[in-house]
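Structure tokens please, single chain.
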Amino acid sequence: MLCYWGAVDLSQRQRVAGITYTNNDIQPIFSFKGDQTVVTKSALYGSGIKYWLDLSNSKLNHKNILEDPQLLSFLDSLIDSQVSTPSLTDTEPVQLGNRLHLSVHSPVSIGVYNSQGNFTGKVCDDVTLICNIIEDIPGSTYFEFGEGKYVNLGQGNLQKAVLIGTDVGTFTFESQVVTPDGTSNISSFIDIPVTTQTQAEITINQTSGIPQLKLDVTGDGMTDFTLAPSAVFDPITYLQIMKTTIDSLDITSAKKKAFGSRIDNAIKLIQKGKIDKAKLRADKFKSVLEKVISKPDPKKPKPKKLSKTDAQLLLDMLNQLLDNIS
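Here you go.
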């Protein structure tokens, strides 16, 4: 039997791709040896002949494994010794081809598509708020653990991964390519700013295994940024994305220009290595936004004036910047 997730690392702290995780976001350890519930070592306990059923191109798992027609044929063969079952063997199978372990952390959803348009991920109804996990790509799995969302599948089965913002904050995306001999390589996009308008599409080079992220900041279907992996936080890219967010707000051109100038000045200071001065500029920008939020709601709101909602959005983005910049 083959599966794509197994034991969990319960250590107090661990460091992956330059990120330190605590027990608030425990990371699972993946294995392709099992059926998503029982790992091979557990299944092999005891004496007798052992058989493996290859589920690498199947949508079945532990709960419905007895629906596999070849397994049913095998059980028949045990009774009358007449049925051939090529997918069942008493020799442990090996992983064929590279596996992909994809994960996102913080306020985004993730779903993946293969070249046939099959989907694996979670789909929620906007009215009933009922969510269903779909695993239509053969050999794929989706699950959530702690603060993370995870998709595992064969590298050749991925056409694209789609991320959609669900709140204001930052997200981290990781792509781990695991070869048949167990070696792996991790590519990361660290602390990318996200709002409920954010959409992103990730494709992975099938030869190099390196992902590329196309980011749509405003949700208009157009790519605003194309990013390469980086294991460290990039404050300049963060501020550039924030400036694009400001340009998408329904405020006056003068206000966009003024706010954009604040962002440009902070970028110039960072480029010169003057991080502390950039932080001071961000703090001053925060004070402007906090004043907007603290004022009582006007009886007759002026059109294209910065709303409290938009001010809070920008304030949250600045707080995330200050939490990450060093």
